[in-house]
Amino acid sequence: MLLTITNEPRDYAWGSTSLIAGLEGRAPSAAPEAEVWFGDHPADPADVATGGTLDAVTGGTLPYLLKLLAAAAPLSIQVHPTREQARRGFALEADRDPGDPTRNYRDDNHKPELIVALSDRFEALSGLRPVADTLRLLASLPSSPGVEALRTRLAGGDDAEALRHTIAWLLSGTARAEVDDIISALATAHSDEFAETLDAVRAIADRNAGDAGVVVALLMNYLVLRPGQAIFLRAGLLHAYVSGLGVEIMAASDNVLRGGLTPKHIDVDELMSIVDTTPAPVPVQTSTGAVTAFDIPVDDFALRRVQVDGEVALEVTGPTMVLATSGRIGVGSASGENLPVTVGTAVFATVDERTLTLRGQGEAFVAEPGRP
């Protein structure tokens, strides 16, 4: 069975008034549009065109959540737990009210995710830079007590441990003077090697005055994704989306530990217990050919980007979604059902479907459970 599913955009403050609207060919919205959720997550299950919500069809069992994400301002720096960490944390917080703003764990699941860029530029901070590289970046800042304190904490010893102690110090609240000093020094920093990174962090600082997360951002890898490029964000990886429009898929979870660029609760101890401070670049995956299957090393979800020009037949496994992001596309099933997919909406195929045929011209993303 095929079902058309839609949802209303969520109006988080960091959202864009134009990116999702532009994708769908309508005028900019009056309020920010940050995310459109296609899934059965109890916080916001998708609407079914024939009536009701998707959780009534699936029983709330979908292992993944597919989204359109549109950022006009940086999201909080954050990290997600492993399954084991989520189960432990959720059990320890079982007596807290679900709406408690100090609660870290909303469920007992992990939240790995993949983001694929749709806009010409999708900016992200992802993972931590090797300390030697960061020390070269810091050399472009004018010398000051805060900058020298940061250099001293990073220099010498094991990179992962130096980064762990430095991030904990920055977020502890005891480094307020140093944080302000470093942010001030950013204004006149110049580096040919790190020009884009410095410009991006300065823009982040303009929106987050005095936030220690600005300095944490200086320690992170800055990436610009182009349309069709993707990054996978594993458990424990520090990250933040900065700007742009993308398709995001994740395990069905709402567990977020924040590490800056937000007025929301930051539990420094819990954050530091799950973050992986081992520095490394985050591999960028690039779409190639008519069908690109992204490399996703978890079994919660799989995602393919499909460039449709005529007809493409796809084998699918389990409950599947087809999200249209450009052009005019229809979805057909082996039983003869056919549904058009308007850009910005999706077709949901129930678990009994094994082959879907995409027809027309345009771009679509096909989400389904992962294959062990």
Automatic annotation (TrEMBL):
<dbReference type="Pfam" id="PF20511">
    <property type="entry name" value="PMI_typeI_cat"/>
</dbReference>
<keyword id="KW-0479">Metal-binding</keyword>
<dbReference type="InterPro" id="IPR018050">
    <property type="entry name" value="Pmannose_isomerase-type1_CS"/>
</dbReference>
<dbReference type="InterPro" id="IPR016305">
    <property type="entry name" value="Mannose-6-P_Isomerase"/>
</dbReference>
<feature type="domain" description="Phosphomannose isomerase type I catalytic">
    <location>
        <begin position="3"/>
        <end position="130"/>
    </location>
</feature>
<dbReference type="InterPro" id="IPR011051">
    <property type="entry name" value="RmlC_Cupin_sf"/>
</dbReference>
<dbReference type="InterPro" id="IPR014710">
    <property type="entry name" value="RmlC-like_jellyroll"/>
</dbReference>
<dbReference type="InterPro" id="IPR046457">
    <property type="entry name" value="PMI_typeI_cat"/>
</dbReference>
<keyword id="KW-0413">Isomerase</keyword>
<dbReference type="GO" id="GO:0004476">
    <property type="term" value="F:mannose-6-phosphate isomerase activity"/>
</dbReference>
<comment type="similarity">
    <text>Belongs to the mannose-6-phosphate isomerase type 1 family.</text>
</comment>
<dbReference type="InterPro" id="IPR001250">
    <property type="entry name" value="Man6P_Isoase-1"/>
</dbReference>
<keyword id="KW-0862">Zinc</keyword>
<protein>
    <recommendedName>
        <fullName>mannose-6-phosphate isomerase</fullName>
        <ecNumber>5.3.1.8</ecNumber>
    </recommendedName>
</protein>
